[in-house]
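Task: encode each sequence below as structure tokens.

Item 1
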Amino acid sequence: MKALVGTLVLVFCVNAAFGFEGVPLLLWGSTQGKTFNPPALNALASSNLLSENIVESQYTVVFVGDKLSPEALNECGAKKCFPYLENVPQKTYFANVENPIGLLATIGDERKTEWVNAGSKLTPEAGKISFVTLTPGDFSTQDAEIAEMVKDIEATGYKNSAFIYTAAHNNVAEDGMIARRIKREVTNKQEEVPEEPIIYYRDNETFIISYSSIAYKAVGADDPIELNFTSAATSRLNDTEDGLALDLLGDGPKLSFHIRGENGRWWVEKLLYAEKEYYLNTFIGTHIGFSFACTPTSRFLSMEEVQPGSFNELQITRLQLEPRFSTDATEPFLGYSEPWDCVGFISPGIIGGLFVTILLLIILAAGLSWIMEIRTMDRFDDVKGKTITVNVSE
């Protein structure tokens, strides 16, 4: 028993030194056994306390509550939450022990251990550690459960027993941590831009397509109309192996992508909505074995001019597409291949910046070259000397 007290005292002191937020722990022995006093701190050995200095002939019962803190125990002092524990004549209290359940479980790795619920029948045995899970919430209920189980153990006549009451969590520290987590989550939610949902269609052989929205804007309309498609299907174009028609189907007209593949590349040849063709203002295509991705909204104008200078418009946002033309001896689609993005690496701004930089470097180089070509006179006229005569060759 003294070795167990010494171990807990040492762990408490180390945790206090490092500032860990632990849980309270109450330790007492059987009223039928000999009373004990905690050893002095300077008498504790710090090596192998967990594995060697706990007497194997002792039976230990660990009562585990859900939450406990020194603040809660102070409040319970006036409310009399623990009538049984308050009347235990000889007990040792540790206000802050880091992970006592883990400590005792480590000790129990080489001993016989068991986990039971409150009210279960316990069989005392030398070297055995029993972890008893108490009813969560009410301290008075936990105190009554502890009293009943200690009484049952003492009734067996086994005298060399030790009892520990602790908890898995510090409710004050946990509440503070939860409050900080909620505050952080609220802050992050305010900063995050809500992401649009992705609509996704695929089969295991011929295609994968996804997008966040497809809208249709007719001439004269103020706002585009969202198109709702419920399924997708494919067919061969003119019964050829290098042509594929991918149709998005719904309650309204279908949207068709006519896809061609040749010489290691694939591309969308035609885009049709309601059987009318649209200009491919954004080129859709890449190398075979890659997927095409375009996060910005792509706008496609109808080839048919509805009014002079006015065209119907299709708007597709966050489009990603990958077709497969041959399914012989190939694995099914497990997901998109590497994406080829429609946003080029070099934008017009980058090209303009490079052009201006090169032009300024040329001007700087020309200016330095001209400055280095400037020559100064190496002879000067002297009024007292001979007049300088400059030959034509000089």
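Item 2
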Amino acid sequence: MSSTCHVYIILPCSFTFRVPESIHTHSYIGSVLMVPSGMDDVFKAIHLSPQDVPFTLDLNNNTASLYTLLPLDREMRDSYHFHVMATTSGVERLLANVTLDVLDVNDNRPCFSRSMYNITVNANSPALTTLLAVRATDFDTGSQLVYSIVTKSGAQPFAIDPMTGFFSLMHTLDRQSYAVEIQVSDGLFEDQAWIYNTFVHFRTV
């Protein structure tokens, strides 16, 4: 009397996913495994390794689907590499290698390096003199920062280069002191950064 033995050879597959860091928790990312027919008992014990990644697996209709488990933050970590494993008869078996890249979204405000700049300007300084170079940083990749003067009270004898942040004198001063409010923006209204109470004080000598 003979019997037939069905042997399944499982070769590890590789999957790459790209998701924005703004993805909500418990969101579907993609399918990482199709369970072969007749292998239900084996694949009931699938899990991720390492187990501390912010993702989870759901096995439904012979398909293992990957979901987010926790919020993602590209500035903290921009990629994950983990494995889909199956445990059967006490032995772990590698089923798939997964790479997940976290894509940047504009979720960080630009920030000036200082909250206040104090400088002294000679009243006889010629026009177009560069007085100061202000700097701001943004943790988001590819952000285009734009500098501007937002003070509305009267004519200002100053200008700021929107791209470089160079703050210049446009014409000679009349020996008065000035307070100038500046701002930096990353171009999106919902992420626009206003720098309040950031004054540049000019004292003539």
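Check on item 2: Residues 40-43 form the longest helix (4 residues). The mean pLDDT is 79.
End of task.
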